[in-house]
Structures are given as C-alpha cells and as structure tokens.
User: Fold these one by one.
Assistant:
Number 1:
Amino acid sequence: MPPSPSASQPPVLRFAPSPNGRLHLGHALSALTNERLARMMGGRLLLRIEDIDRERCTPALEAALRNDLAWLGIAFDGAVRQQSEHFADYRVATRDLRRRGLVYACFCSRQEVRAAAAARAAASGEPWPTDPDGAPLYPGTCRASALGEGAREIEAPHVLRLDLERALTEAGEGLRYGVFDDEGAVEIVAAQPRRWGDVVLARKDAPTSYHLAVVLDDARQGVTHVVRGRDLEAATDIHVLLQRLLGLPAPLYRFHDLLVDAEGRKLSKSRGSESLAELRAKGVTAQQIRRDLGFA
Ligand code: GLU
C-alpha cells in the first residue's frame, strides 16, 4: 500500500506550468481544477514554475504566465518554487542514486538510440518496444560499459539514465499509487515502470529531468495531492519508483481529461494552440473562460 497523506494534514495541491510557451485553455483547465479541488478540500494551492529547460524557458514567458494566471483570478498560497533555483538539490539526488549504482552515464544521442532500436528490431523481426510517449525504449548500449564506473561526475556530452532493473530490485516489485476522487475515496493503481525502460534523469545541460525534479519538488513543497492532465498519468509509474528510491512521501494523484482541438488533438504550445493572451485580446473574459470550462 502506498503511504497516503494523513487525514489530519491539510491538503496541499500545486499547479506546475513551464514557461516555455504561452498558456492555453488546457493550462487554464488544469489550474482551475486544482483551484476547485483545493477549495473543496480546504487545502492550499501552490505555484511551481518548472523552468529546468534554460533554453526554451524565458523571463518574458514566465512574466506572461504569471500575468495570465492573475488575469484568470487564481490566487496561490505560500512561496512560489522556481525549479531553476534548485539545481543543486537535484544534483545531490542524482549523485546519491549514482553512488548506489542505480544511475549510469549514457553517451548515446537520440538518433543513436533510434538507430540501435531499429537495428534490434531488424535483427529480431519484431517491432522494438516504445515507451508511453512513443520513444523507443533505451536498448541498453551504455548500461554494460557503465558497470563499475563508480560515482564519477557528469563529464562529456551524455545523459544519466536510471538502471530500471536495478532500481526495481532495490525498490521492490509491486509499486502502487493512490488515485483520489471527489468523495475522498482512493483507488489503488499498480505502477508499471518497466514500460519506460532506462529513463533519463539528467542531461549535460540540465542537472535534472522532469521526472526527478517533479518528485523532489512535490516532496519539498509538501504536496499531498497531485492533480494534472491525463497526458502525465503514465509518468506516475516512474515518479512512484523515484519516491521509493529517494525515501520521499507518496502523494495521492488525480488525472483530469485533456481539452482537444477540432481535429481531436490535445491542445499544445508547440502546435500553436490559441493562447489565453490571444483569447483575451479578442475580448474573451476570464469569467467566460471559467464558465466555458465548467468552473463558474
Ligand atoms: N510542468 C508540466 C507541464 O507544464 C506539469 C508537471 C506536473 O503537473 O507534474 O506540463
């Protein structure tokens, strides 16, 4: 059983956007869902700026994001946590995992991973498995050569990967997490970390991946209830594994449906979905958005 937040502890929720593009209606839905649930449960709602990608996240986009949230009328409690200010914290965690032999250095580029996966598929005549995001599972090229390398610092161009099988041996099989509903009932779900393979935990240009930063920050901020889109549901498999390995408390989870465009594709910054700023410029009000999304 995953440890669940105690009934005496006031719930803590968070909205954790990345300032790597303009916010769209999908972000508004996520922020408003968190706001509604925090209110319903008498909890606190925190803001976290997920800006580990130092190339795509900019101060101007962050200012715009904060402005959009203020315009929507969402009030956050407590201090804002800014991931770019906590790189040292993430490094401590990766070093710890590396010392324990759970993380290894990988020198493969994305292209090399794809090529190695294609070669394995051709050799076996079977399709090479992909992770829930559609990327080929890491075929393990650098895993064997990394054995016994010790806890060297990150050096040449490469990433650090979690050795999934070793991690599962240490964490134990049968990882689970709780999904909560409006009535406070909790459904226990089995995590399937093997479908992700040896995930990346840090890159040369960023001392953490999304997976590592999110579990450390949820713990540091005392988050008890993680509410996010269904597109991040599968990632929870890796998050519960990292929580177990790092001795962090396990929050409860809930995944809301995603908004889709006219073609049925989820709204996305990279596909240029209409931003909240564009809607505002057209005269759409925050009240209309709240009403249209079902929060009025
Ligand atoms: N930063 C992520 C995003 O903007 C959300 C992270 C999370 O809620 O776990 O999609």
Note: The chain has a mean pLDDT of 92.
Number 2:
Amino acid sequence: MSTVQETKVEKPEMKRKFYHLIINGEKLESSNGTTFKTYNPATGEVIAEVAKASKEDTEKAIQAARQAFDYGKWKKYPVNKRSRTINKIASIMRARFNELVELEILDTGKSLHAAQGQVMQAIEDFEFYASAIVGHRGAVNSVPGPFQNYTEKEPVGVCAQIIPWNYPLMMTAWKIAPALAVGCSVIVKPASLTPLTAIILGEICLEAGVPEGVVNIIPGSGSEVGNYLVEHKQVDKVAFTGSTPIGKNIMERASQTLKRVTLELGGKSPNIVFDDADLEAAVDGSLFGIFYNTGQSCEARSRLYVHESIFDEFVHKFVEKTKKLTLGDPFDKGTHIGAVIDQNQLDVIDGYVKSAIEDGADILTGGKVAQVKGFENGFWYEPTVIANVNHKMKVVNEEIFGPVVVIMKFSDEKEAIKLANDTEFGLGSALWTKDGARATRVANQIQAGIVMVNCPFSAFPGTPFGGYKQSGFGRELCIETLDLYTETKSIISYYGSRPLNPFGL
Ligand code: NAD
Ligand code: MN
C-alpha cells in the first residue's frame, strides 16, 4: 500500500492495560463504568480493557463536538495553522511509528509488513491533507452584467465516523484527516474488535494541539453508539466504512435527518488475467491482491478470471506459490499471512468454503482452519484456492472477507468484462495485459471505483478510493474527499451603479 519504513519492531509486552474514551479533550471512563476486552486474534489472549461508551457518553461526545464546532476556534484558524497542526499529528505518529505498528499487530493479528505499510499510510494521509487543504477553495463564477458570484467551502459540521476492524488505524486516518483539514469536529466510533490505535490517535491529536472537543473517540457497540450517532439531530454527517447490509441500514436511518452520508462498503473485486500478460507479474500480483491482510480487505481481488489459453499454467503457478505463503508469528518479518480477526469470522470463512464444496467446486489448496505452531489458540485459516465454480454459487457472489479466492476461465475480452461486472459490488478491479489499448478499453468498461492495471496496489494518499453500485458512494483518500466534508455556499452580489427595482414600482 505504501512505503515501508525499515525499523526494528520488537515483540512487545502490552504495557498499558486500560484505554479510555476521549471526550472533550479528556480521557474518561464510561459513565456507567462498563468496559470490554480486546483480544489478540493470533493468540486468543486478552490484551487490554477498554472503556465502553454508553448512550450518555455518546450524547456527551456529540455535545462536545457541537460546542467545538459552533463556538470553537478550530474552523476559524487560518488554513496554514490547521495545516501545521495536522502535520504535527503526522510527525508525532512518525516518532511513535513502532509503537503504533506493535499495537496494531497485537489488536488485529495482522502481519508486520501489512501493519507497517498501513501505519505509514495513515501518517502520509495526514501529510497529504495538510497539503491538500491549502489549495482547497471556492470559485469565482462568471455571471452576466454587474453581478458577481463566488463560492465558499464551509465545513459541514459535526461528523460521526464509523470504522471497521480490518484497517483500524488507516481507516481512522482516512476519516479524521480530511474532516480536520476543512474544520469539522468528529466523533469516531472504532470497531469493538480493534479500538486501540484509534484511541492513541485521538490522544495524539490532542498532543498536537487540536482543540478539545474537535476529536472525540468513543469505542462502543454498533447498535447502541452507532445508531445513536446516526439518528442524532445534531450530527450533520455520517461517514461509514463497513459491510453493505449495515451501510444500507445507516443510510435509511440517516435519511430521517437528511444527514450527509458517505459509505465505503463491501466488495467482490474481479481480477482479469489476459493471455498476453506478464505471467509471473500476474501470478505475484494476484496472490497479493487476495491474500494481503489475510484477505480481509474490502478491495480484495477475490474473483480471478484467467484466459483459457493460459489457464492451466497460471493456475499451477498460482497454487504452488499459495502453498509457499507462510502463516506464523505476526511479528516475524517472514510471515505473509496473519490471523483472521475472530472465531466468528473464521466460521464465516469456513462456511463459505463448505458451501463451495457442497456446490461441487474443487479446492485446489487450503480449505480448512489452519494449525499454526505456537498459536494454537488463535484464529487462522489456510490460504484457499477454489476452482470449478460458476456465477450461481454463493462463494462467487458474496463477500467472504478471508483468504479465499475463486478462479474461473474466460475466452475473450467481451466475456471477461461481462463476468467482471456480473456482481452487485463495484469497488476494486484489476487487469493484467501488455496491450495498452486493451488495458484502456477494459478499464473504461469495468463498473468499479478502482481499476488496477498490472498493479497490485489499490490506494495511495491522493488516489480516490470508493465504490460503484452496492460498494457505496463517496470517495476517500483524495482531494474530492474535502468536498464531501464541506458545503458549498454561493454568494451573489450586485455592483451596478443604479439601484435595482425588479418589480418596477
Ligand atoms: P461492520 O459493518 O460489521 O461494522 C463496521 C462498523 O459499524 C463497526 O464499528 C460496527 O461497530 C459499526 N456498526 C455496526 N452496526 C451498526 C449500526 N447499526 N449503526 C452504526 N454503526 C454500526 O463491518 P466490519 O465487519 O467491521 O468490517 C468489514 C466490512 O467492511 C467488509 O464488508 C468490508 O468490505 C468493509 N470495508 C470497506 C472498505 C471500503 O473502503 N469500501 C474498507 C474496509 C472495510
Ligand atoms: Mn483485538
């Protein structure tokens, strides 16, 4: 995803055992004293206890954010001062890079390389928006006669930001950074499975000089805290990343107050390998495309379509390399595949694989819960390749969110495009070909927010990230995200020498 900083990450002891809510600049326990535990999915061990926000705490966070937005100074700062503060957040994160990486690995079970790349990207997101905001401005529009029109971009207000568990810090950065840049206040609800790095990021924002109440972090349940935020009259916008069913539910609830909504939802992204592709690059890129982050990626390229003339050779190479992927200690540099997030997700993945077997598919490798030496109590799944499938099967149509890929054949470009688009989703897509004209032609016809051409990476700070169809709407990580955190105000003035008298009275 991003450049990895070469540093030594020690396998840490979890020094801090308790994590607070952050409301109005204060580190608080929950109003009713409730807490929840967070686990290391690699080992199954409890790593920390976290204050669990109640409805009362959520109300308090909304009032703090409201107060900070309506009467506070953040949005009134000259843009260079906000930019400087956002850069300060990035530099504190850089100084605490290893600590953030360690914590992210412990809370998610993801591999060292994945965590390093994601923490680095989170840092670079803040740097990107610190720069981007300086050039974000309204326009002067041409109007006839002695009239003048200009527009102002005003911050939308109080934003609820709801985060999934697969990229806890990176998704939080994608949301906080642009909102802060334009002058909004935020209330972040991290996923209950992975709240730790978002809490640390909230502390870092305060340390960097973001005024109290502008960034509030309230771990808690989706149905309680999440719903409360989404329905509240004093919340102006909700930015959600998560599953498609919950995204639909949020949109429906948010309609009652006509909140601004952006939704980054699920996917089932196609990966097309044409007969003229660089075969090695296509194998390696496709492998990364699905197994990166243990397949727990919204843009995981989980449907692989290979031209019939190279199908056998490609599949052979792909399966051989899949077998070489290492599952093991997430802190080892050599580990490719980390743990699955929890037992529930492990059951979901295994259920999909079993459904494929029942539907008559062939498991070419993997296909079961993995046994990893020294990590017997963790949640692990073997990287799995499934062939002999078709578009009627669940395993081809639904998002699995695990290290499972289905491989199918196609015979010409038209068919490849048709198969790729035969899905409710439209987030990522990839294609492998040496023919530039074909790449352009196919890229133009794919119904997805992101097309990767001979490229395994889906996101860099500055590149728009978001979906077509039921993968949601709105774009993150880019300049236009700033527009999604602002309202456009149009100011029309008259500068004629004579007073206007439109009624002619
Ligand atoms: P999820 O939908 O279960 O939960 C996401 C967040 O929503 C969590 O914080 C959860 O507590 C909260 N939530 C749950 N119910 C809620 C409700 N009723 N109201 C408000 N909030 C509620 O998703 P997950 O399992 O955490 O994450 C995996 C999903 O996220 C996958 O579908 C994946 O594709 C998607 N995802 C999408 C993107 C993207 O950019 N498109 C990025 C990462 C993940
Ligand atoms: Mn955890």
Note: Residues 424 and 470 are 6 Å apart (CA to CA).
